[in-house]
Design brief:
With about 150 residues, the chain is mostly helical. It has one domain. Helices cover about 60% and strands about 5% of the residues. A two-stranded antiparallel ribbon has the order 1-2.
């Protein structure tokens, strides 16, 4: 599975619209949540968060079960491509249980570092939020939060 498969599942027009909204600086404030510049909630015709969740669910879960360990690194690479095209916290939140595995720690570190080094707030802010909040709340142990 690659990014073109995810685009096909969503539909090119809807995917492109969600990407456009994800990159619109007037609509991406407060860690990726859309707000109108005047402060009122902006109702988007395409909910980027729902698209993130749907695509990440398709990418990382197979019929409600986590994908095979042999696929994790490959699928996280696709998730990184998705994040670069359609940045947002939803991608990170859904990938978190996989990103924290020892087997992909090197890949995760490079990916997060690269996003934080980007001048575009749309790429850096969701990662900063994830590092400040979620990474410390995640507990991969049996019965933990992850």
């Amino acid at each position: 599975m690659d990014l073109s498969d995810l685009i096909e599942l969503t539909g090119t027009d809807q995917f492109d619209r969600a990407c456009q909204l994800a990159w619109d600086p007037a609509l991406t404030r407060c860690w990726g949540r859309p707000w109108h510049p005047g402060g009122a909630r902006y109702e988007r015709p395409t909910d980027v968060g729902e698209i993130h969740a749907s695509l990440m669910d398709t990418l990382l879960y197979d019929g409600g079960k986590e994908i095979a360990q042999s696929l994790v690194r490959e699928r996280l690479a696709v998730a990184t491509e998705l994040y670069q095209r359609m940045p947002g916290y939803g991608v990170l939140a859904m990938a978190e249980p996989f990103m924290c595995q020892d087997a992909v720690a090197d890949c995760t570190t490079r990916t997060l570092r690269a996003a934080l080094e980007q001048p575009a707030d749309q790429l850096a802010e969701p990662v900063a939020y994830w590092l400040l909040v979620d990474a410390f709340e995640f507990d991969p142990s049996p019965g933990g939060t992850g």
